[in-house]
Batch of 2 targets.
Target 1
Amino acid sequence: MPHVLVLNASYEPLGVVSMRRALVLVLDKKAVSLEDSGVLMHSATSAISAPSVVRLTRFVRVPFRGPVPLTRRALFARDGGRCVYCGAVATSVDHVVPRSRGGQHRWDNVVAACRRCNHVKADRHLADLGWRMKRPPAPPSGLAWRIIGTGHRDPRWRPYLEPYGSREEVSHVAPDVPRPEAPTERLSA
Ligand SMILES: [Zn+2]
């Protein structure tokens, strides 16, 4: 079932909710639909077109945003799905300073890597191998990452996320490829 992008009244991306939850927000007038998903949701008496993007009618203050959760999906998105050492398609997660040498599982010590580089590197330091990285790994920043980290994707979200992340980052959550026709969902309420 597709999910719905929720924007603050200020248009800042806040998160992703289920279509059902988004529809309740719209019906309660807590949010307005900005983009239609094309999915029809049926209640006992009527059919409603479910949104793909909603915007809250009142501004919600977000007190504190912690670091972007470190997940495999988010890490691959940060590194463009490519091995940071050789540029091949990444298939594994590498700890720059190996865990066996005290390296931590943190944004600034993990990178996407191909199987070969990961195997060759094993538990050695980059300096031991004479390898270099284009830039040191760093935690991703920007509000678009709140959405990228969820793993949900929809091309309709793209224009709403582009002001909050780089084009390449946003392309991970909002690919150009059109989604296949969404199924009709029954709204049991
Ligand atoms: Zn590689």
Target 2
Amino acid sequence: MICTLSPLAVDEPTQAIERIEVRICDLFGFYLIETNEGFDFTRNKAEAKVFDYHEENVVDLVTQAARQLGVQWCLDPVDEGLRYERCDVCKGRWALSEVFYTKGAFLCEGCCPEE
Ligand SMILES: [Zn+2]
């Protein structure tokens, strides 16, 4: 599978003002925390750093991590109602883990091109 990154999509530009809180975790279920030295990971979800999705440019952060460190991070919205993502092709709503971000589009597994 080539595309496992799934940042949140915001349907309407007007919703961008709304504060969306997310945690960042890796594919092993470790959560990103902020330390004096920078970033670290923890198993303890309660310790996870909560990012402001828009203010802190979470998508940039995740994209940079993928590019510079070769790691794949996932977003875990604090608000459970945001755990769904719309596929840009079939417009269906899917759990975040089932939607992939690739080449600038959000795609569900069915619409995600095979490698
Ligand atoms: Zn789809």
